[in-house]
Description:
CATH superfamily of the largest domain: HAD superfamily/HAD-like
Mean pLDDT: 96
Distance between the termini: 7 Å
Helix content: 40-55%
Structural class: alpha/beta
CATH topology of the largest domain: Rossmann fold
Number of domains: 2
Radius of gyration: 17 Å
Low-confidence stretches: none
CATH architecture of the largest domain: 3-Layer(aba) Sandwich
Number of strands: 8
Strand content: 5-15%
Shape: globular
Amino acid sequence: MDFEAIIFDFDYTLGDSTKGICMSINYALTKLGYEPSDLESIRKSIGLSMKEAFVQLTQIKNDEQSNKFIKLFKEKADIVMTECTELLPYALDTLKQAKANDLKTGIVTTKYHYRINQILDKFNALSLIDIIVGSEDVKFEKPNPEGLLYAIDRINVRKEKVLYVGDSIVDAETAKHARVNFIGVTTGTTSKEDFLKFPHITIIDNLRQLVIEQ
């Protein structure tokens, strides 16, 4: 593949924060008087914005409640998220391989920017990433292409030379809206069949299958 930059989603693409996310979501829900959610429902909400996750989990559209939910989620996540996050198999090797091949690298995520910094620092991987765009860095979260386009602008690479890798429909839609090359990875809750509905170069089972070369 003839690319100059590779940009990743984080949750279920590079890392697994399921435990911390579940703890933080159910902390927020119960504090607001809602029933805690089950693991599978929470897993299916990972990758959405926090506001969209609240709506999906509660079926309630209420800005005041969703804002309280986000605040409470962050309150718990600041305590547990970094400790409860692990990198997925082959993630670190993939980032190292990308840098060894002189590729620019980035992360565009609905997680907070500072959280990604904390997680990467935990694994001594901050130096492997050239640009991070988190939820606090944009006005509109994925699938709006703002974050991805901002990352591309910052690393100063033409769009046609950029590859975006993600695990969800939200990521596929983001790449489509940005008109950026996309590879889907099925390490999340999205199936190959679902990815086939969107423009893509290929669909892989894990990052080990990602061939990186300039």
